[in-house]
Amino acid sequence: MTYSPFIIQGGDRPGRWLITCDHASNVVPPFVGGGDLGLPETDMRRHIAYDPGALAVSTLLGEYLDAPVVASNFSRLVIDPNRGEDDPTLLMQLYDGTIIPANRHADEAERESRLARCYRPYHAALAELAARPDTVIISVHSFTPQLRGRTPRPWEIGILHPEGERFSPCLIAALQAGGDLCVGINEPYTGYLPGDAIDTHATKMGRPNTLIELRNDLIADDAGQQLWAERLADSLPQALIASGL
Question: What is the model's pTM?
Answer without folding.
Answer: 0.96
